[in-house]
Amino acid sequence: MKLSKKGEYALRSLIDLGIAADVGRELVQVAELAEKELIPAKFLEQIMQELKSAGFITSQRGKFGGYRLARPADDISIGEIVRLIDGPLAPIGCVSQTSYEKCSCPDEVHCGLRMLMLDVRNAIAGILDRYSLADVVDVTTRKMKRDGIPLPFSHERTHGAARRSAKEQPAAAATKRQQIPADRRLKPVEGILSELFPDYTI
Amino acid sequence: MKLSKKGEYALRSLIDLGIAADVGRELVQVAELAEKELIPAKFLEQIMQELKSAGFITSQRGKFGGYRLARPADDISIGEIVRLIDGPLAPIGCVSQTSYEKCSCPDEVHCGLRMLMLDVRNAIAGILDRYSLADVVDVTTRKMKRDGIPLPFSHERTHGAARRSAKEQPAAAATKRQQIPADRRLKPVEGILSELFPDYTI
DNA sequence: TCTTTTTCATATCATTTCAATAGGAATTAA
DNA sequence: TTAATTCCTATTGAAATGATATGAAAAAGA
């Protein structure tokens, strides 16, 4: 049930571009992304091309060029990205909603494995299609702020140009912080769900 | 997020062995499994060896030999099987509960991607570790009976030996049904969940 | 105009994984 | 003794994975 390195790199870079957009940074170069995320730069270049031709990002060529998100981060679902890079979310072709493929089993209708895997695919898609890049960016930046870690991409890099003022996030997207008794904090799930909904339990 | 062919074959065969156990069939040979499921026989042989050395099945060698489940089907979780054949359920190593691996990202604690993938891993494991082989077998045989399709493995194959009587299933495991208003019942999903709990919604 | 820095485009490569295939040894029943 | 089966190990071919390599095209600044 693996996500490929390529998929991981794509997501990490897009999340970074989302953060950059949030802090008012216009463009981010491949070199900077690669350095920050420890991704081989040339490999990342290729990935960025794919993301570009799929319409997730746009680019500025030449000196002081770079990449930025093509659409608002809340308009890009994680599922879309994963599907582009790694193909269908479904564990087996016969339960894929976006690219069904007949399987080799003799009777698909009465196949218990298929029913099971349909649940798995729905569970995966239920998460990846429900969450947007903006959700992941929000959760990340919120956690960093909470821990006093400065956000990346807060200034232009090689270029002394005046930076846009960061969009004032109205009270950190109204983080309804809610205290949880210490004994309930024992088994934090640490997922996005628990981050967005502090009372979420599995 | 793929399940490998090998994993699929392993699961299909184990489900078959579960059905065989249910209908009182003592042993099933690789050739029969391979034929029924359209799996290359020699490939399946290898898989059966792995399943055997992992303790899921036992074998009888020689003429009229074959395989059977080593433990009751409700004692074997699907997750175990998948982990054996395909490795950890987690999409990336840094969220695996059974075989964690540090990832290359600079700050694991504030990594939004990691939080997201943790949810995905929990969703997958929540299904695959919760369901047993018996659940899948039950759902399969129930659906076949409902549609008037004869269960496979109902008689010995080449051998005229007396077959065991099938275990009488006591009223299909008392499903506590709970009504959900019709407008909340979004779309029937056809998964195992919806099969076991007809009012299940996503 | 020339240089530097960037994206863009292709080709290539090394390794691993996947999905088998092959050949035969050991075991068992008749 | 023979046939049918599991067991064991090696090999193979194709594809995917995760990169490198090389250089063209574009943009900005000197």
Describe the structure.
Two copies of one chain form a homodimer. The first copy, chain A, has a single domain, classed as Winged helix-like DNA-binding domain superfamily/Winged helix DNA-binding domain (Arc Repressor Mutant, subunit A), CATH 1.10.10. In chain A, 44% of the residues lie in helices and 4% in strands. Chain A contains eight helices and two strands, in the order αααββααααα. In chain A, strands 1-2 form a two-stranded antiparallel ribbon. In chain A, helix 1 runs antiparallel to helix 4 and helix 1 crosses helix 6. The longest helix of chain A is centred in the N-terminal third of the chain and has 18 residues. About 15% of the residues of chain A have low confidence. Chains A and B meet through helix 1, helix 4, helix 5, helix 6 and helix 8 of A and helix 1, helix 4, helix 5, helix 6 and helix 7 of B. Chain A binds a DNA duplex (30 and 30 nucleotides) through helix 3.
Summarize the topology:
Two copies of one chain form a homodimer.
Chain A (H helix, E strand, L loop, with lengths): L4 H18 L7 H8 L3 H13 L3 E4 L5 E4 L8 H9 L25 H17 L4 H14 L24 H4 L17 H5 L6
Antiparallel strand pairs in A: 1-2
Chain A binds a DNA duplex (30 and 30 nucleotides) through helix 3.
The CATH fourth-level homologous superfamily of chain A: Winged helix-like DNA-binding domain superfamily/Winged helix DNA-binding domain
The percent of residues in helical segments of chain A reads: 40-55%
Discrete helix count of chain A: 8
> What's the structural domain tally of chain A?
1
Give the rounded overall mean pLDDT of chain A. Answer: 84
Order of helices and strands of chain A: HHHEEHHHHH
- Report the C-alpha radius of gyration of chain A, rounded: 20 Å
Structural class assignment of chain A: mainly alpha
Largest sheet of chain A: 2 strands, antiparallel
CATH architecture of chain A: Orthogonal Bundle
Strand content of chain A: under 5%
How are strands sequenced across the largest beta sheet of chain A? 1-2
> What shape does the CA trace of chain A take?
globular
End-to-end separation of chain A: 20 Å
How many strand elements of chain A? 2
CATH class of chain A: Mainly Alpha
Largest interface, Cβ cutoff 8 Å: A-B, 56 and 56 residues
Taking pLDDT < 50 over at least 5 consecutive residues as the criterion, the unreliable ranges of chain A are: 159-188
Oligomer: homodimer
CATH topology description of chain A = Arc Repressor Mutant, subunit A
